[in-house]
Amino acid sequence: MNGIFDGLFGNDATKVRLGTAIRTGTLPHAFLIDGPRGSGKSTLAFEIAAALGCENRESATGPLPCRRCNTCRRIFEGTFTDVKVLDKPKDKATIGVESVKEFKEDMFLSAGESDVKIYIVKNAHLLTPQAQNALLTVMEEPPSGVFILLLSESADKILTTIKSRAQYVAMERFSRQALESYLLDKVPEARTRRTSDPEGFGALLIRSEGYIGRATELFDPKESERIKAERETVKKFIAALDVRAPYSALYAVITELPTVRAELLLSLEEIGRALADMIKSKSTDGFVTTEFFLDADEARRTAKSLSQKRLLAISGILLETHDAISKNAMTAAALASLAAKIKLI
Q1: How far, in whole angstroms, is CA 141 from its chain's centroid?
Q2: I need a labelling partner for 149 at 20 to 30 A (CA). Which of 118, 160, 176, 244 fits?
Q3: How far apart are the C-alpha atoms of 326 and 22, rounded to whole Å?
Q4: Which pLDDT does position 1 carry in this prediction?
Q5: Which residue range(s) make up the domain with 212?
Q6: Would you state the pLDDT for residue 136?
């Protein structure tokens, strides 16, 4: 929505609702902004912070935030003292209660440069229960002019008592068409990539899962090569599922799968998405949206030599293998079992 939170793409309904509340002085004191990594949570949080502190926020016709005043510039630069950010320490897996206590104590101090203070908690889903309860005490009776923005990748890990005191905002997930349009307009490398490597560009759109930040990250050469190699492995796996293919082909591709548990789980999930596309291509005439293949036609062509019964059976075995490995089964044994079970189908 032009003029409100211009730094954030899409999310128009959210922009209008929050922008109107800021201009009328009715913005709730706490928000839970939810979405996966790369969905724009931080962008929205700093747009809100800048709008609250903007020296021209009362203008009915100008943009919000104005992005020109001293306060706006410093908030976006990260140098404005009345905007505080809390995140997980690099050497920790969670955000502990002591960090929140220090954060909370600052909320009761007077603002130094404006009439509002904004507190942004990144990775709020990593707050320990004790840390969340410590934060809850200030959310129940927040000091005047204090706004708390919790950024989470998993709202189900946030205590119900916290969620009941914060307005929920879900970040928008974009269609591939909208995402492609944005990238071609804003990212020069995107135009080059689409021309030089259309399949790789299409794979990037799929893997971004509809989120701009994630798509931008995937333009990194290492990420691009990793995705390309992973897709090749998935295609080899699928080719080896043909009943006419020798068992050695299936065994060979399984030995190419990652040995690190977390990476192996991601690879199995990617194979699962490819199988799901193929199953849907056989069972749904109106099948359009794919999760692995570039389009439905590619999924149909790939699935042509495999029966739906075989695909469903293999998909079930893959889910069992993923579940076993996620529960700390020995990866080598689980993969050997996967190969053996597929051979018996």
Answers
A1: 31
A2: 176
A3: 45
A4: 46
A5: 174-219
A6: 95
Return the SS3 of 146: strand
Distance spanning both ends of the chain, measured CA to CA: 54
Other C-beta atoms within 10 Å of 30: how many?
21
Q: How many Å apart are CA 271 and CA 277, to the nearest integer? A: 10
In this structure, is residue 90 part of a structural domain? yes
Count of Cβ atoms closer than 10 Å to residue 99 Cβ: 20
Angstrom distances, CA of residue 172 to CA of 13, 98, 212, 238: 10, 33, 10, 33
> For residue 170, what are the CA distances in angstroms to 136, 254, 277?
21, 38, 27
Other beta carbons less than 10 A from residue 61's beta carbon: 5
> pLDDT tens digits, residue range 84-118?
999 999 989 999 999 999 999 999 999 889 999 99
For 119, other C-beta atoms within 10 Å of its C-beta total 23
Angle formed by the axes of helices 41-53 and 70-77, to 10°?
A: 150
The single residue listed with the structure tokens 């929505």 is 1
What the block records as the tokens of 271 is 């194979």
Q: Could you give the CA distance from residue 135 to residue 130 in angstroms, rounded to a whole number?
A: 9
pLDDT tens digit sequence for 141-176: 999 999 999 999 999 999 999 999 999 999 999 999
Amino acid at 280: K
Q: How many domains does the chain have?
A: 3
Output the domain CATH number for residue 154.
3.40.50.300
What letter does residue 3 receive in the DSSP assignment?
A: T
Its pTM surpasses 0.85: no
Extract the tokens encoding 339.
């190969």
Q: Say if residue 258 is in the same domain as residue 300.
A: yes
User: What's the full length of the chain, in residues?
Assistant: 345
Residues 41, 89: Cα–Cα separation, whole Å: 19
